[in-house]
Every structure is written in C-alpha cells, then in structure tokens.
Design goal:
single chain, alpha/beta
C-alpha cells in the first residue's frame, strides 16, 4: 500500500475535527462517529478540549482506504496555538486544508496557506458545511481562485471540462493534452505533488457528504515519497504521559529507528510507540516515513533533528505579548520557574523566564485562550492558582549600519579579546552567525567557542533591553593568551563585543504587527475606518455587501491589542476581528516607548557594554566609547599609519667620517702620566615612602547568612536574629583588624524603600533601595572606594567575583571569610591570655623570700 503522512489544517470552527471523525468512521477505523458538541470526539480526548470544543494539541491517527495507508495529524485551528500547528508542517507529505463554506477564507486560513507554500507541501482542499452555506460551490470556488491560487480546481466531477482546466495549469500538461486529448492520473498526481494543482472537494463532514469522494481522491492522486537509506528523524513535539515519562513525537525521514538504539553519547531509545488517539502500541522498529513516539530521550527538544537531520532546526514564530505571572504569596518564584520547565518542553512557543531583580516570572504567550489553558494546566498539575497582569508588547531591536564591536576581558590572570562585525539584514532574517577569521590568527577551538557563545543566549539591544534581530554577526578577529585564557574569558569578551557594537551602531526599535480581517455591519463601516486610521493601519475594503463589510489590512499589535472590546461595544457584538501575527516593523512611537521602558544600558551590569583591561597587576573598567583606545588588536578597517622616511645624500667627506668615528669610539687619547684621583663621594640613596591604604571590606549580608552553616540554621527560624548575630561577629572582627567594614543587605523586595546606612557598633550596615540588589550596590561601592582603600569583597556569587576583580578589588568567598574570622577570634583569645597578670599564692612568696635571706 502507498504510505503518506497527512495533516488536517484549518481556521478554528471550520469543522476539522469533525472531518477527521468522518474519515475514520468512513474508513472503518471507528465504529461510532463522535461529535465535538457531544464531547465524545475520538481525537479530542483532553478535558479542556472537550469543554471548550476546540483542538488544543496535535494528535495522530491512522486509517487505510483502498490502496493507501494514511498517518494523519489533527492540528489546532485556534490562532493562539498556531505554533503547535506549525511544528507539524515539517513532517507532512500532504496537507488537507478545510475551509468553512459559511465563513470562507479567513485571516488565519491565509496564514496557513502561506506556511504551506513556504514548506512546499502539496494541498488538498475540502470545503465543509456546504449543507448550511449560502453560497454555491461555483461561487466559493471562484473566491478560492481569487484569494488562494488560480489553480484551485474542483475534483468533484472529472468530465471533459475538468481535463481542460487541468491542462491549463501547466504548459507541459497543455502540450500533452493537445497531443493526446487526455491526461493520465499519474500526470495529474505529479502536478499536485509539485504544487501546480490544488484539488478542491465540497461536502459536509457532519453528514458524511463528500468524505468518501475526498478519500478516493487521496488514494488516487497521492504519490508515495521516497526516503534515503541513511538514518534520519525529526522531533516535532514533546509531551509527558500519565506516569511522567518524557515522550518525543518523531517522524523517521530515512533508514530505520530501532528500540535500544543509541542516538548519541547521552541519548538512547528506550521504547518506540505508535499512537492511535490516546492509545498506543509498542513496536521494535519504525521505518522511513513512519510517525512514532520515542520514550527515553532526556534533552532533545521539539524541532531537533536526528541522524542526517541534525542541525536542521527550524525557527518558529514567537509570541508578541509578555505577561507577569502573579503567584500566591507563599510560593517562591525561583522554585516555581523550575517546575514550569516541562510546560515549555511541551510547547516551545511558551517562553517562561525568571527575572532575578524583580523576583518575578514573566511568560510570553499568544493570547487569552492560551493563557486560560495554561492557568488550568498549572492548577491541575501543580496545584497552584496563578493569574496574569494586562501584559505588554514584546518589542525587538535591530541596527541600520555596519559596525565592528570590540570586547576585551582581562582581569588579573585572565585574557581574551574579540572583534565582531555587526551588519543589518532584511526584515525577518533573524540572527545569522558566521566566521571570517583565519586559523593562523586564532585557533579553531577558540573560534568555535566564540560562535557558541553568540548562539547560547538571547542578546538584548541598548534602547529598551529588548531582544535583537535581523543582524548578521561575523567573527573577524580575536586574541588569546597562551597561559591565562579560559572559556569563561571568551564568553565575557564575546558578550561585551556585541554590546559595544550595538552602542556604536544606529539602533531602531521594532514592534509586532497583526494581519487582520475586520468584519462589521455595513452601517458601522465609517466608524471602523475612522478607528483604523487612528491606529495608522494600512487596509483595504476586501468585500462589501448590503449588510456586511470585510476590511483587511495590517496594524501594530500595541494599537490593536484592546480593539476587540471596543468593536464588540459599538457593533453590539455583531463585529468580528481576526488577527494573525505578521512579523515586525519599525516602531512609529519609538521615542515614546523608549522613555516608557526606562532602560539604561550603562547601568545594566549583567549586560555590560564596557571592557576590562589590566595594568600594574590589577584590572580596571574601560567605558565602551574608550575601548578602542586600549584594545590590543586594530580594527579591520582602521588605516595603518606609515611613517615618512627622509632621503639623505650618499656623499660624505673626511670631516663627517671623523665625526662618526669619534661618536662610536671616542676621541683619540694622548698618553699621560697617571695620577690617582680622589674618589667622589656617593650621595645616599633616597627611598620614596609608599602610602599603605587602609583596608575596607564589603560584605554581602545574605550571602554570608546562607553560606555559614550556623547562621543558615538560625535564619530558618528567625532571619533578624541571624542578621544581628552576623553584625556582632563582624564588630568583633573589626575590633581586631581595625579595618572599615560595610555590611550590605538587599531591600529590593520592599516597596518604596530608599537606601539607608546605619552605624552598628564599629561597622556600617547598608540596606539598598527598592529594585536594587546587594550585588549592584557592592559593584558601585567597589568602583568608588578602590582609589582610597584596599577593597576586599566577601561574596560567593561567581559573576560578582569576576566583576569586582575587574574593578581592582580582592574577593573572598563566604566559607573563606568565615575561616578567617574564626582564626582572628582564636588569635585574639591568645593575645588576651598573654596580657593578663599571673597571680600566685602570697604565703608561698613570703616563705621563698625568708629562705633567701
């Protein structure tokens, strides 16, 4: 039998799940045909899917009809879950696009059509709900030709007119038809496979009308795909079963996948499953073209490839809205972030991040429906009730000119310098990475490390701190030290080179845009046009009838975000707005948005634009705009200064020769009687006094409390007691060392709190202001105090240690500082004991004196 993987795709409410039920029932796979409104559909087995009446997750089923075996995937139709649909496109041989005969081609339908074109997937079209459609099949077909493709051809009746229309779709078919007066089924199937023809079928899935005709068309005109013998596979989805097992939904694209097969050093196939709805069968192998589920993979994600497909990852559309997840007061945000990791694996479009400074979780999602489903899943699986704020738009940044960014990282015993060329790319290109550097200049392993550091994180811009896009980053120069360079040095230098380049370049802000279709009663058309003009939307009237008007266009997400509520209000619920994300454009209100975001790149210490250089054994910070004065490698386009050489005459006379001779050997000496001269007195050597700076120790309070075992145990019951205990210990230490001690505590969780400094005994205790961490305060204080004090910083924060070293300070970990304090305490006791007088028995002393006499 022929074998093909087919996807069912449609706009929401077009009847996609109903068609899948009808196909399974007609083919004999199901004995009973379920219905969405009866909540018993075979593929919509999730509780939320049945309650809401929509498909949320893509699911697999199998059927056989005549000479073809179909593995088909039912995908979500709602725009909020478009990424779930898009991930399945990479595994499809054919697609069945369902269009409602009532609503026609919708905005999301056009998005799906464009994606099918991008992935070059052959398409069969099924126009559903013809039993309740006001338009005839011919009228709908005419609209399809106009809105989708002129070669949308009805396959309901294969008469002479049918073959004539087929022949007009391609020059080669026309020539054959004129010669042979017919076209074979194989030639039509080939044209469909090459996307020259798009078959259209009409019917009603609910009433099983036209379903058998569609199955016959699939059997007749589908061509089985050929696969290579070399092993390859694509993972398009990751889920977890009821036992918590991690499952990777996969299509084998070459060779065979076998149970217990080792895919890499860390990944092994534990079990292979073939799913039919929510039931599965365990098999020992899956051949090329099969859909299967792999149990046992630990790290591979949706979009990853196996075998020869490795590295062919596909970037999907990202959400355009960002929401703050509001947690119950007793739930820790950082711990909650780790529990939410499986949710991101199941839906790669769901971006969940933890913001340390604000101590909050932010979630990027597509819309309200996805938000409600996420809230329900968290409550169901984790038992936590969460809510979300109103959200904000996800902006992006790019550059308009090419620049060379320089990053240098050279604290004591560290070294790395990186030069990156940043070039603007066309809209929608994303980030592209390349290397244009000879191995003679920098070794291969260092170059690979730099490129991996560029890829490993989402780099942010300098206008609002939003992710950058549409930029090509090319490695053009770099330098390492034979002894002092390690991997972390190149990470810091790479990050700083990108940031320095962005500061030099002319950056612009990008905002997301919607492609929309607005349907309003004709008497409200003028109001709708007025609103769209106020949004600076570009639009056109696509269709105008006596009662309804359809307007299509593009508008910024920020301006259209709340418009559905306004639309429902002034049309009394009769208006309808359908939107789909249509990429990013230049932001019209860039200056206003930048002011509102309050982002300062120079104060973002975790994404520093500056570089660190070393001089006289200590590192020092160099601002981004002065880095090129200190860098060790010249810029690629920097002109080389050539000193001019004066040309002199080659003629020399005797006087010149004598002068040269005397300048080298001295004047000829005349022998005289030697006389002893008195040796001159040698002036005493003077030694300049060296000023010894007073020591100042900056202590990260909470870092010490949770780094010292005794204080950590005390803090579990009473944090204030642990603070006072730490203050007492540092006062004793200060009394022995006679140094300045500044103890810093975070106060960023408090509302409306300014920086406070108090004197507790002999030490200073600082509580930072709201939204400021102890790390940032210590970095600022280190920079200010380094000139007048020998600064030491007590912290176990790895990043903080690197930064203070760069400021010229000495770092000490929490455990080392505790040992130092204990040693000082022991020394203080010994000195105290030595200073005490020794008291003897007075009677014995008198007896000794008497005997001496």
């Amino acid at each position: 039998m022929k074998h093909a993987v087919t996807g069912l795709l449609a706009h929401v409410d077009a009847g996609k799940t109903t068609l899948s039920e009808a196909m399974l029932y007609t083919s004999g796979t199901l004995r009973h045909m379920g219905r969405v409104d009866h909540q018993d559909a075979f593929l919509d087995y999730d509780d939320q899917e049945r309650n809401r009446g929509i498909t949320i997750y893509s699911k697999q089923a199998n059927l056989e009809w005549k000479d073809i075996h179909l593995d088909f995937v039912d995908t979500p139709g709602h725009v909020d879950f478009s990424s779930e649909m898009e991930r399945t496109l990479q595994i499809l041989d054919y697609a069945i696009l369902i269009i409602s005969g009532v609503d026609g081609v919708q905005a999301h339908t056009e998005t799906i059509w464009n994606l099918l074109k991008a992935y070059e997937i052959p398409v069969f079209i099924f126009v559903n709900k013809m039993d309740i459609s006001y338009d005839s099949a011919d009228a709908i077909l005419s609209k399809l030709k106009k809105q989708l493709h002129s070669n949308c051809i009805s396959f309901m009746y294969e008469d002479e007119a049918f073959y004539e229309e087929i022949s007009m779709s391609e020059d080669a078919l026309l020539e054959k038809y004129l010669q042979q007066e017919t076209i074979t089924k194989e030639e039509i199937a080939s044209a469909i496979e090459r996307r020259f023809i798009f078959p259209v079928y009409f019917g009603s899935a609910l009433k099983l009308d036209g379903v058998e005709k569609l199955l016959d068309g699939l059997s007749t005109y589908m061509v089985e795909k050929e696969y290579p013998s070399e092993f390859g596979a694509k993972i398009y989805k990751v889920t977890y079963d009821e036992q918590g097992n991690r499952l990777a939904h996969t299509k084998v694209t070459g060779g065979k996948l076998q149970a217990k097969m080792k895919l890499s050093e860390a990944e092994k196939v534990d079990q292979i499953r073939v799913y039919e709805g929510n039931k599965f069968e365990v098999v020992q192998e899956a051949k090329a073209g099969d859909l299967c589920v792999i149990k046992g993979l630990k790290e591979l994600q949706a979009g990853d490839g196996l075998g020869f497909e490795e590295g062919k990852n596909i970037a999907y559309a990202s959400p355009v809205m960002n929401y703050h997840m509001v947690l119950p007061s007793e739930i820790d945000a950082f711990a909650m972030r780790r529990k939410l990791k499986p949710f991101m694996e199941e839906d790669p479009q769901l971006h969940i991040s933890y913001h340390e400074i604000e101590n909050e979780i932010r979630v990027q999602i597509m819309g309200e429906v996805q938000m409600e489903i996420l809230k329900h899943k968290i409550l169901q699986k984790l038992g936590v009730s969460v809510s979300f704020d109103e959200g904000r738009v996800n902006y992006k940044e790019t550059i308009l000119d090419s620049v060379e960014g320089v990053g240098h990282f050279e604290p004591l015993r560290h070294y790395a310098e990186v030069h990156l060329l940043l070039e603007p790319l066309p809209q929608g290109s994303g980030i592209q990475i390349d290397s244009d550097l000879s191995m003679d200049v920098l070794d291969r392993h260092w170059q690979r490390l730099i490129l991996s550091h560029i890829k490993e994180k989402e780099h942010i811009g300098v206008l609002t701190g939003s992710p950058i896009t549409d930029i090509k980053i090319t490695l053009i120069s770099g330098k390492a030290h034979a002894k002092h360079t390690d991997a972390g040095d190149f990470r810091q230098a790479t990050y700083r080179a990108i940031r320095q380049g962005l500061r030099k370049a002319q950056s612009i802000l990008l905002e997301p845009y919607y492609q929309f279709q607005l349907t309003v009663p004709t008497n409200y058309m003028s109001r709708a046009i007025y609103d769209l003009e106020n949004m600076n939307a570009s639009f056109k009237i696509a269709d105008q009838q006596e009662q309804l008007t359809i307007i299509k266009g593009e508008a910024a997400v920020a301006k259209m975000q709340s418009y559905p509520i306004t639309l429902r209000s002034y049309t009394q619920g009769k208006g309808k707005l359908q939107c789909s994300v249509d990429g990013y454009r230049s932001c019209d209100d860039m200056e206003e948005v930048i002011l509102k975001m309050h982002y300062d790149p120079d104060r973002d210490l975790r994404n520093s634009c500056d570089s660190v250089f070393c001089e006289h054994g200590s590192g020092f910070n160099v601002p981004w705009d002065m880095v090129e004065e200190y860098m060790h490698i010249p810029l690629r386009n920097q002109p080389i200064k050539v000193q001019s050489v004066k040309r002199v005459s080659n003629k020399v006379d005797d006087h010149e020769l004598k002068r040269v001779f005397e300048s080298i050997y001295g004047k000829p000496k005349v022998k005289k009687q030697t006389t002893v001269k008195k040796r001159p007195e040698v002036a005493p050597t003077t030694v300049n006094s060296v000023k010894i700076l007073q020591e100042c120790i900056l202590v990260d309070g909470y870092n010490m409390i949770f780094g010292w075992n005794k204080l950590k145990e005390l803090a579990k019951d009473h944090m204030d007691a642990a603070k006072h205990q730490l203050i007492d210990v540092l006062n004793n230490y200060q009394g022995y060392r006679k140094c300045e001690i500044i103890l810093v505590f975070d106060a960023y969780k408090r509302k409306q709190h300014d920086t406070t400094v108090t004197k507790e005994g002999n030490i200073h205790v600082v509580y930072t202001k709201t939204s400021q961490t102890a790390d940032s305060y210590i970095e600022m204080a280190t920079h200010k105090l380094a000139k007048d004090y020998r600064v030491r910083v007590a912290t176990s924060d790895g990043l903080e240690q690197l930064i203070v070293i760069g400021q010229g300070a000495v770092r000490v970990s929490a455990q080392e500082f505790e040992k130092e304090i204990m040693a000082c305490h022991a020394m203080e006791i010994k000195e105290y004991e030595k200073s005490q007088p020794v008291f003897r028995n007075q009677a014995l002393e008198d007896i000794r004196k008497f005997h001496k006499k």
